[in-house]
Each structure stands twice: as C-alpha cells, then as structure tokens.
Amino acid sequence: MTEQDKFKQHPVSIEDVQVKELFIRGNVHPDTVDENITITYSIRVGHSEYDEETSQIFVGLSLETGQELEEESDSPYSIKIELVARFKIDEERFQQKHVNDWARRNAPFILFPYLREQVYALTIRCGYKPLILPLVEVPTFQSNKTAEPPESAQ
Fold first, then answer.
1. For residues 58 and 117, what is the distance between their CA atoms, to the nearest angstrom?
2. Mean pLDDT over the full length of the chain
3. Which of 2, 41, 66, 84 has the fewest CB atoms within 10 Å, i.e. is most exposed?
C-alpha cells in the first residue's frame, strides 16, 4: 500500500465550517474556581435536507453548559457554541440514499475537533482552566456502489 492509498480522498468533502454562535458568561472570577470542578455539558446535532442540485448538506453541532442560567449554579461559567459545516457529496462514489444517515451519524465526528478547539480557546481566553473535550470513539461507515461481479467470478 502506497502513502497515497492511505490518504485516499473520501467521497464527502467538507467545504467550510462557520461559527454560528460563540457565547460565554463568567459566573465567578476565574481565580476562585476549584481546580477539580467537573463541568457538565450537552452536545446537540442537526442537519439540513440534502440538496440534490448542489450536492450539499449542512450539519450543525452545538455545545452548551450552564443551562441552569436562571438558577443558582456551581458552574463557573455558562457557554454556548454552535458550528455549522457545509459538506459536498460526490454522488459517483457515495450513494445519495446514505447521505442523511451519514450526516446524522458520521458528520458530527468530523466537526468534533472544531468544537473542541472553540471550547478550549474560549475558556482559556477568559482566564478559566481550559475545558478540554475528551476523545470519542468514531464509528466507520462505508458506501460502495453496487458493481457487476468480475467476469472471472461468473
């Protein structure tokens, strides 16, 4: 296997990633935060319908912490970050019927490093211990066009 074979381009390509929302509110001064505090957060995923004319689909990923904004909270800060990415599909190599499933299951894992960077940078810029999102296990998904069996197999 050559080096080029290892890095074969996927039939779905990411065209751009945009930050739709980037919000932080400090609830306490960074110097008063316990080093061992556990920050809880929730992550949501969504996607548009696949656009057959442009061969594109949009996928959103958001993280929120400090949802208890109206109540007393032990959370040192409240964060909301939302990203949206535009993906282009090569329909010659990826079956259209799998696009929505791919957007729901796989695309969030592509966006996760972008979200991780935004969370890390935002917390550290505001003087807090950086919130580092953990690594996650990534499921694999392969789509192969149905091909005719080779002559020798018949």
1. 20
2. 88
3. 2
